[in-house]
Amino acid sequence: MEIEKSLPYGEGGADAILNVQPNTSISIAYHQLFGPHDDLMLLELDEKLLPDILNQRVTIRGQPDEDAVLCSQTKTYAIKFVGTSNSLFLIPPSNLSIALGASPNSSEKDHDNAMVASVIKVVPGSMELVEVAPRLDKLKLLLSENPYSFDEVSQMNTELTHKNKGLYSWSDLVEKVQASDEELCTGLRALAAVEIDGFWRSLDENFVDAILNMLLHNAVLNDWLLSALNEDEVLPVLEADGFPREIVKHCLGVYGSKVDDEIRGGCTWRLEERPVCVHFARVILRGEKMKLERFMEEWRKKVPEGMNASFDVLEGEVLTEKIGIETRIYAFSVSSLSSVPAERFSKLFQEKPKWEWKELQPFVRDLKVPGLSSEGLLLKYTRRSQPSADAEPIFSAR
């Protein structure tokens, strides 16, 4: 190619290539602004993402030490560079010289070169987007730095606390967590986070335990039905006991669900069996292993009357081990595990080298990897063995 010293306005740009007819050719030359242009990159897109890109509904997220991801409003995409062995010429619009401030220098000789396409950059490859799971482990870590506790309420030191490290607004989380807005909202709900004075907080376990116990105590005193808790009655009573109204309402949403009450009207809540039973199991097992019989006895005492403390509700929350003829139980929650499959399976097989499927399933069914099925995950990270045709399959590390 020859270096093109000057092209007239409207000539030599991408439009020259677009108008080339079949079985014809066109000359190409270096543009006067030819160079590496590291700020120009090609991005290959799926058509379904094109409206989001054109309407500026996407963002690039990641810290300097992280690989960048592109987030739409609902999904997260890894950005991968794909090299090409063929030369790919980037030809700018014909009015690029005007846009970049190059001086005009039109002449009759330039018009003779009207069909010369000017190359501004040779592209070594392009970027492509691969849908990935949101990286929410960091969200869990950030919210654990400064959980909201009863001390904060009783000491009324909110302003002082807000100056401390470990408090994050929505904009802080968007900046730090690689997930789309929708995925970030889902992650906050899964962690039972609540927005307090503009900051998203997790709640201290002892604080939540105190709220639930006070709620159950007042339910007995006031003859409240746990299946029909009237918000207008519950909130003032617990607020008088020192619990902030908005935090109590949040806990009703975490441990219960709204129901229609045509008789009394207003907002009515029903405490749900599983989250309440799991909460008290976690409190009892905090930091220790117990004999199964002793645990079941204490657990049934804690669980409200009318709720069934069935061992089945603890799937994904506990593990058991046999020591001689004795069975012990201890807390091992799926919520404490990484959402990265390789890290998840590594931790599981550190805990137990071999798993039956009925034990393993609760700890892996929440793993979501776009483009990879649950069966594919198991094939990639585990070895399956089956002593006999009617035996339970056993999974070990690959």
What does this structure look like?
This protein is α+β, with helices and mostly antiparallel strands. The chain has four domains: 14-132, no CATH class; 137-201, no CATH class; 205-271, Arc Repressor Mutant, subunit A (Orthogonal Bundle), CATH 1.10.10; 337-398, no CATH class. The chain contains 17 helices and 18 strands. It has a five-stranded mixed beta sheet, with helices on one face. A three-stranded antiparallel beta sheet has the order 10-12-11. Strands 13-15-14 form a three-stranded antiparallel beta sheet. A hairpin with a 4-residue loop joins strand 4 (69-71) and strand 5. The longest helix has 17 residues, at 205-221. One of its GO terms (cellular component) is Ctf18 RFC-like complex.
Show the helix and strand layout.
Layout: H1 14-18, E1 27-30, E2 43-44, H2 50-54, E3 59-61, E4 69-71, E5 76-90, H3 96-99, H4 108-112, E6 116-119, E7 121-132, H5 137-143, H6 150-155, H7 158-162, H8 170-176, H9 181-190, E8 194-196, E9 199-201, H10 205-221, E10 229-230, H11 231-240, H12 245-255, E11 256-259, E12 268-271, H13 273-285, E13 290-291, H14 292-302, E14 318-323, E15 326-331, H15 341-351, E16 354-356, H16 357-360, H17 374-381, E17 382-385, E18 394-397
Parallel strand pairs: 1-6, 2-7
Antiparallel strand pairs: 3-4, 4-5, 5-7, 8-9, 10-12, 11-12, 13-15, 14-15, 16-18, 17-18
Helix pairs in contact: 13-14
